[in-house]
Description:
Blueprint: H1 5-12, E1 19-21, H2 30-36, E2 39-41, E3 49-51, E4 66-69, H3 81-89, E5 93-96, H4 112-133, H5 152-169, E6 178-183, H6 187-196, E7 201-204, H7 206-211, E8 222-227, H8 229-232, E9 233-235, H9 244-249, E10 254-256, E11 267-270, H10 284-292, E12 300-303, E13 325-329, E14 334-337, E15 344-347, H11 357-377, H12 391-394, E16 397-400, E17 403-404
Parallel strand pairs: 1-2, 3-4, 4-5, 6-8, 6-11, 7-8, 11-12, 12-15
Antiparallel strand pairs: 5-16, 9-10, 13-14, 13-15, 16-17
Helix pairs in contact: 1-2, 4-6
Amino acid sequence: xxxxxxxxxxxxxxxxxxxxxxxxxxxxxxxxxxxxxxxxxxxxxxxxxxxxxxxxxxxxxxxxxxxxxxxxxxxxxxxxxxxxxxxxxxxxxxxxxxxxxxxxxxxxxxxxxxxxxxxxxxxxxxxxxxxxxxxxxxxxxxxxxxxxxxxxxxxxxxxxxxxxxxxxxxxxxxxxxxxxxxxxxxxxxxxxxxxxxxxxxxxxxxxxxxxxxxxxxxxxxxxxxxxxxxxxxxxxxxxxxxxxxxxxxxxxxxxxxxxxxxxxxxxxxxxxxxxxxxxxxxxxxxxxxxxxxxxxxxxxxxxxxxxxxxxxxxxxxxxxxxxxxxxxxxxxxxxxxxxxxxxxxxxxxxxxxxxxxxxxxxxxxxxxxxxxxxxxxxxxxxxxxxxxxxxxxxxxxxxxxxxxxxxxxxxxxxx
Length: 415
């Protein structure tokens, strides 16, 4: 939820009126919103400003209304262009949470940390279940998927219990030591690391991983490695040095060098931003070569950022909470849902914060709260230049009165 009952109560006292669409499966009940002062309705046709979370169906939009949600259009994502066209045709306004930033460009409202938290829990659970399917007892056998815990604290207690088993018994010999890699170091990675830090471990650098003799590491130690941009990619021209700003501006001048680390990883947690301009870090070609050498150490890829056919090329689609994993067969180049089969297991749930709905909603609504009144009361009929919105919100206005705003005019070519 973008706005919780507690936040409805606060904002109602400031003069706002809320309508909440009825839902039987929301973590906050209809009754809790009613008690907070909201009207419970079957549709939102009477509302002019509509707060959601994920993409809205193209058929949902109504003329000249304002919508706030994660639109996933800023990279020109082809699967969301019909939705964006529909909103434009309705002369609507679109504010995207992803682009609500301060003057330094830092995002102010996000679920990223909770995606990382849930993604890491799911990936450790998936690792345990994958080993179970292979007939190998392990300390993660009793873990559950994130949404099956009553709270984040309960999930953390379960991971800590697995950590105590590792500390006392160690990992099974064939899987020891457990080596977990993280791509990226932002909010998603911070959340994922918070879970892995509950295990008995030590952090080393990517270079140290390359030099590390894994046979020398005790079985009760978990190795954690964080990969940054200069670890993932290198200049195509070998005489050039890696330059971060140049990498951002000219990613075509770089190529992946991540494959050198993969044979030493047990679990890869992919937490980084990626778009099609950047090199992939795990390709189908590489996985085919890796498995041609025999069963590798790598058992699970937790593709938390979940870009279909993206940085993890074998992530062909995002998966559902109810059916969260598949095994990708590198020889057949095909996925099989579940834990059985030849290949690497991929966890790619694309709505991971929904697995920790209460904590994620409260944190998100806390960050959104200072902007809600200004968003709700703005006069969207004003010209863009005169539109009175807080700077972070105006920077996130992608469509205004059915037209792409100047900062997002580039999206036109994708439409």
